[in-house]
Amino acid sequence: METENTGLIEGADGVTRCFWHGNLPDYLHYHDHEWGRPVADDRRLFEKICLEGFQSGLSWLTILRKREAFREAFDGFDFERVAKFTDADVERLLGNAGIVRHRGKIASTVNNARRAREMVAEKGSLAAYFWSFEPGQSERPAVVDLAHLRANPTTAVSTRISKDLKKRGWSFVGPTTVYAFMQAMGLVNDHIEGCACRAEVERDRAAFKRPV
Length: 212
Description:
The mean pLDDT is 95. The relative contact order is 0.17. The protein is 55% helix and 4% strand. Strand 2 and strand 3 (16-18) form a beta hairpin. With 212 residues, the protein is mainly α. Helix 2 (42-55) packs across helix 11. Strands 1-2-3 form a three-stranded antiparallel beta sheet, with no helix packed on it. It has a single domain, classed as Endonuclease III, domain 1 (Orthogonal Bundle). Pfam families: Adenine_glyco.
C-alpha cells in the first residue's frame, strides 16, 4: 500500500517505488525499465510525444496497453513513413479498434511526422532538439517528492518547448503533454526520493551522452 504522504509504495518483492504504477505488472515494468531513462533515439522520441498527445483526457495506462497496436498502425512511428500518410490513411485508422480513434489526434500524428522531418533537416535530429532544452541544475527541484509531482504538471521549460513546437506547426503538444514527455524520456528524473529506481536513473543520466 502507499506509504502515507510520501507517494511511495512497496511491491510484492519488498522494493519501494513511486506509487503511480499501482503494482500492476505492465505498469510496474514500465516504471522500472522505461520511465525516466534517458532516450536519444529519434523514433522513440517521436513515438512518445505522439502517444502523450493521444493520452490527453485519458490515462497513460490506457495508452500503454494499446502501444503495440499504435506501433503497428503508425509503421513503428517511423516519421519519414508517417509523413506520407494521406487522408485515406486517416480514415483507415479511424476504423482501427486497437488504437484511440480520435480524428484530431490521428491527423496530428501525421502532421507532427511532417514537422519532425523538417526539424531533423534543421537540427540534425529530434534528440538534438529536445535535449537542448534539458533543465539546468537551477531549474530542477531540490527534492522530488509527492508534493512536487502533484504541484507541477508543467514547468517553465515544458512551456518553452511547447511554445516553440507550436510555432513550428506541431499540435497536441501543450505544456502538460510536453512535461510528461520530459519525465518519461529522461530529460528530468522525477522518480520520488526513496524510490529504488531513482538512483539507477541518476546513474543512467550521468552516463548518458547528450546529442548535439
